[in-house]
Amino acid sequence: MTTTRTLGRSGIEVSALGLGCWAIGGPWTFLGSPGGWSTVDDDESVRALRRAHELGVTFFDTAANYGAGHSERVLGRAFAKNRKGVVLATKFGYRVDEAQREVFEYSASDYDDAARLAARVRSELTASLRRLGTDYLDVYQLHVGDLSPDRALHLVDVMGDLVREGTIRTWGWSTDNTDGIQALATADGFSVAQHGLSVLGYEDPAMLTLLDKFDLAGVNRSPLAMGALTGKFTPSTTFADDDQRRRASWHPAFASGHPTREWLEKLDAVRDVLTSNGRTLAQGALAWIWGRSPRTVPIPGFKSVAQVEDNCGALAKGPLTPQQMDEITAIVAAGSPHPGT
Description:
- By secondary structure, this protein is an alpha/beta fold.
- The chain has a single domain (4-233, 280-319), classed as NADP-dependent oxidoreductase domain (TIM Barrel, Alpha-Beta Barrel), CATH 3.20.20.100.
- Helix content is 36%, strand content 18%.
- The longest helix has 19 residues, at 114-132.
- The chain is globular.
- Mean pLDDT is 94; it is low at 336-341.
């Protein structure tokens, strides 16, 4: 496969694999609850980011939320001397208190006053640019996934202005709401839908159909199911109290602070296919995503150089074959490692 992809109508070329920078934000608080992935080593994060770039990754996705701005600062530090060599994406839509490392929601009604909304978006963008150490963004994404499509449409004017001004190159929305993506799909400068996608069913096939219909890129959240597709967990695995996975029951891989037995059994069932051709489990999960659509750009998270090196190893092996994709579909549907038995 080609090791690059194009971000929809924007024409921006990126590596087929990106990195998601949520975990390197460290501890922070979202609406009174831990929002991070426990402690991090910023020096290791910088080494990992630079190692990914050495191995061919050019696309890095973060958000103002992550670490209440800390992830953006680490990402900016890593590429301060190589800004033109990377494609930086971040997200907006929440109030960030950097000093207290807290993040708060806006009122949904804030989206109903055009002037106030435009001022707020510009203010957030200025703060993100400062933390990232750059004067422009490649991709700027709405981070409020459950915002109504009607309210999201109120962003069209200000985002179009930012594209025309050159402060951002393109924009998108991090959401699994297909109605919302369809509502914004033809807006000026819109080219990215960031959505959940992984081998064991964290997806909506209708989203991939929309990408084709409107020439959009799909940036894929949770491609390794927050680590649950790497093979390193058991049903008794526990997480630190400030690790997001301790309370991530919204994700089908986790319940009551542990990986679910059902998820792990499904992973065992498809293990042989995913690890074909010398792949690790993580590499196989990424290969499955590339096999789903040529518009996909998975962004696995990381906290170490070793994790980055494992994920980047998937690039050389490419997507699963159509036959392997069909085999996984049959295994998952049958609930057995031996379809038809």
